[in-house]
Design goal:
The protein is mostly helical and about 230 residues long. It has helices at about 1-15, 20-30, 45-50, 55-60, 70-80, 95-105, 110-120, 130-135, 145-160, 190-205, 225, and strands at about 85, 90, 165-170, 180, 185, 215. The chain is globular. The mean pLDDT is about 85.
């Protein structure tokens, strides 16, 4: 299986761009083959950030780490996670990780690179919804404002109503006691917010049918770890 994994990864490398920024350009300039209309896969702001910092981001990627995946893991990425253009996979696993890192941190390139390095070295990974969507036109990532939190809560309720599974990355939420500039107050931290999400999940019970799969995650270096 190790040989099989190396073969499929090598085949992907032969059929994709090495440059991360060039791959992002391909996905951003994607056109729908039926309508002929532009159907960019990458969000406008993320695209501009990547192009502006292309040299630095390109130089950070270590493609040999794609070979760290076993056959099953790589085929799962290829089938469900790596972005496609006209039905053809154009991302490499390392491209996906950098896309996710920039999608999360945006203009904070230092943090994006730190996140990429940690994911690339397999210290942690993000939940599937983040890997699917970060950096795209529908990133499904929420901020730590009241508006952002409750917009996300509504999305979770709607998804849950339709018997969907939910994964929420909460690493952007301020830790207990953090200063809130907009109100000149301090944050109550992540735990009260998670209680609201949990109560909503219990209330929207999918008609008493299928048990929901709900997951909230925070990165290991989030301040909540110090709180507990």
């Amino acid at each position: 299986m190790q040989l099989a994994a190396r073969i499929v990864v090598s085949n992907l490398h032969k059929n994709t761009q090495k440059s991360f920024s060039e791959t992002i350009k391909i996905m951003y300039n994607h056109f729908n083959d039926k309508s002929g209309l532009k159907a960019a896969l990458i969000a406008d702001d993320v695209y501009e950030i990547i192009i502006k910092n292309s040299a630095r981001l390109d130089s950070e990627i270590i493609y040999d780490r794609d070979f760290d995946y076993d056959y099953f893991g790589f085929k799962t990425l290829e089938r469900s996670y790596l972005l496609k253009v006209q039905g053809k996979v154009v991302e490499r696993p390392q491209h996906m990780l950098m896309r996710v890192a920039v999608g999360i941190h945006e203009v904070d390139i230092d943090s994006a690179i730190k996140t990429y390095r940690l994911m690339s070295q397999r210290w942690f990974t993000h939940a599937s919804p983040t890997l699917f969507n970060a950096g795209t036109q529908r990133p499904q990532i929420f901020d730590d404002s009241i508006e952002g939190i409750y917009d996300t809560l509504k999305e979770c309720a709607v998804i849950s109503k339709s018997v969907g599974g939910i994964g929420v990355s909460a690493h952007n939420i301020r830790a207990t006691g953090s200063y809130i500039r907009g109100t000149n107050g301090t944050s109550n931290g992540i735990v009260p917010m998670l209680r609201v999400f949990n109560d909503t999940a219990r209330y929207v019970d999918q008609g008493g049918g299928k048990r929901k799969d709900n997951k909230e995650v925070a990165e290991l270096f989030n301040s909540i770890i110090d709180e507990n």
